[in-house]
Each structure stands twice: as C-alpha cells, then as structure tokens.
Amino acid sequence: MLEEIYDECQQKMEKSIEHMRSDFKSLRTGKVLVSILDNVMVEYYGTPTPLAQVATVLATDATTITVSPWEKHLLSDVESAISRANIGVNPNNDGEQIKLFFPPMTVEQRQDTVKKMLKMGENAKISIRNDRKKSNDAIKKLEKDKEITTDESKTAQDKIQKITDTNIASVESILKAKEQDILTV
To answer: Which of 14, 127, 139, 142 is most exposed, with the fewest beta carbons within 10 Å of its own?
Structure first.
C-alpha cells in the first residue's frame, strides 16, 4: 500500500520535471532551435494545424530558421501565423520560403530568458511540493483509518520527503545547467 504511494509520488514528480523541460523548448538560448515554432498554428483548410505538419522547418545556422510550406498557397498563411506567434522576429517571405533571422541575444535578453526559466523551475518545484502534500495526506489517512501505525506513518512521510528532496535537487541541477547554457555567449 505504501509502495504504491511512493511510486505514484515519484511518477508525478518526474512528470513535473518533464513538463518543465518541455517548457524550456519555448525559451531562446544562444542558438536558435526549431522548437521555438512548436506552438505556431497555421489555418489549414479551416483547421488550426501545427506548423511542422504543413511545412519543413529547419535551422540552417545558429541564427536562421527556414520554413518551407509543402503547398505554395500556404506561404502567406504561414507568414501571418508566425507573425501572430510573436517570437521576436519578423518573417521574411521570398516567394518560395520564409526565413527568420534571429539577431544575437543581448545580455539583457539573456537575463530576461533566465528569469523566465527560473519561473518555470519554480513552478516545477511548487508542483513537486504539491505532490508531496498529496502523498503525505494519503499516508495520514491510512494512519487515521488504522491501516498503518504512527511509526509506519512517520517513516513513510520521511521517505516521501527524501523523494521530494531528490526531485527538487534534480530541478536545481537542470536549472543551473540551463542558466549556464543561456548566459554563455
């Protein structure tokens, strides 16, 4: 019974960390990543469709992304979708493809990106702490229902705290590495 609580707690905390990592994909670091366009939706025959499903998206170098729609008539729709996404650059349409030129990040932009990253990390930590609380509440309920003893409850809560500490440390190390990546020019 307690093992199930431990396992569920660990799985939820790992999901919080994975969610944070996926949020990081929307951040701009020193080199551009095509994942910055992951949330761009293009109107395709009346249906909002992810950009990657209607065009080839390539990072041609550290500061340029090229978007080549599979159907020529989508060029203007893709261009306007990228403009609406407000990713910090204006699309350049050459009639065949769209090029996005990202200027090198300034120190101020890098610091802003670090602030956003730290906020994402804090959200992950809050989620992990909420998972700890839910697990501890489940353990306390078992104790209240006399399914486990007070000593077993205390030991179980200590184990949940160790799981929490491990996951918070993992978030901290990920944040430190990501901050290093963002601030490196």
So the answer is: 14
